[in-house]
Specification:
This protein has an eight-stranded mixed β-sheet, sandwiched between helices. The chain is built from twelve helices and eight strands. It has a single domain, classed as Alpha/Beta hydrolase fold, catalytic domain (Rossmann fold). By secondary structure, it is an alpha/beta fold.
């Protein structure tokens, strides 16, 4: 018998009817899911945006693609910068996934948006993924003048797995004394490889956007047979014993999703360490609801609160 669950928002629930959700992921399903990618052009249509592509080299010699987006005709110096890390369970997705979210901030605030194509599991494992993200962030900081962005106004943001990688990257930047991060925005972040909170167990055994079983597949792909003592807090940020000294943090999630409790706990631990975190848990929201159905009433509220 399944555990009781918070009800889905009625509008969102109606939109999910008939969708092939599934309970688990396996290598064959992953291969199929990886084939679906939204090109950047789909997000750029109708927007006045200048685009530039660069490649940087990581410490282990991998070539890492970055995309840079600026408001069309922008000449302003010292603009804010959004460094965006995509989601996809750390096993799928690319730097253009959910690009509409940071592009809203580009239009609203004149921000420069930089997105990173970190390597995915299981092709790479452990902290390699977050090291890739950190390498891109370090490049942005070292090229701030060239990009026309203010070093004091670099905001890191990501959704789902991207949110978890942003959390780990922010811990890494603190521990390595740079680059400076003005704020971190963690959208339904994937923070805890242990996958054993109450909300994780609530969303097991039945089809869903992101279930406990799918979450286990993602973490297994990243960590393999490593036990908890071997897992870096940079990849599973919930393991970090010290959450002091972090930048202002924004965390949101839905009541009806796997990550609800680990996200709530992370915000509480930032407060306990004397930090500032703003937490929103949206009633009836499933994982990634505002990315999947951005025009739904609950999604609109969530996006407006995040932007504010």
């Amino acid at each position: 018998m399944s555990m009781p669950r918070p009800e889905l928002d009625p509008e969102l629930s109606a939109r999910l009817v008939g969708m092939p959700l599934g309970t688990t992921i396996n290598p064959d399903i992953l291969a199929q899911m990886r084939q679906y990618k939204m090109p950047a052009e789909a997000y750029l249509e109708g927007r006045s945006v200048e685009r530039r592509e660069v490649e940087i080299s990581t410490a282990d010699g991998h070539i890492l693609p970055l995309s840079i987006f600026r408001p069309g005709g922008a000449t302003t110096e010292n603009a804010p910068c959004i460094y965006w890390v995509h989601g996809g369970g750390m096993v799928m997705g690319d730097r253009f996934a959910n690009l509409d979210i940071p592009l809203e901030w580009l239009e609203r605030f004149g921000a420069t948006v930089v997105t990173v194509d970190y390597r995915l599991a299981p092709e790479v494992s452990g902290a390699t993924l977050v090291e890739d993200c950190y390498a891109g962030l370090a490049w942005v900081a070292s090229h701030a003048e060239e990009l026309g962005v203010a070093l004091s106004h670099i905001i890191v943001a990501g959704a789902s797995a991207g949110g978890g990688l942003v959390a780990g990257m922010t811990l890494m930047a603190r521990d390595r004394s740079g680059p400076a991060i003005a704020a971190q925005i963690l959208i339904c972040p994937m923070l805890d490889h242990r996958n054993d909170t109450l909300s994780s167990r609530q969303y097991a055994g039945e089809p869903g956007i992101w279930t406990r079983e799918k979450n286990a597949f993602g973490w297994q792909s990243v960590l393999g047979s490593a036990d908890s003592a071997e897992v870096s807090p940079y990849i599973s940020a919930a393991l970090a014993t010290d959450l002091s000294g972090l930048p202002t943090t924004y965390i949101d999630a839905g009541t009806a999703e796997v990550f609800r409790d680990e996200d709530t706990t992370y915000a509480s631990r930032i407060w306990a360490a004397g930090g500032q975190a703003e937490l929103h848990i949206w009633a009836g929201g499933f994982h990634g609801f505002d990315a999947m159905f951005p025009d739904a009433a609950l999604s609109t509220a969530a996006r407006q609160a995040r932007t504010a």
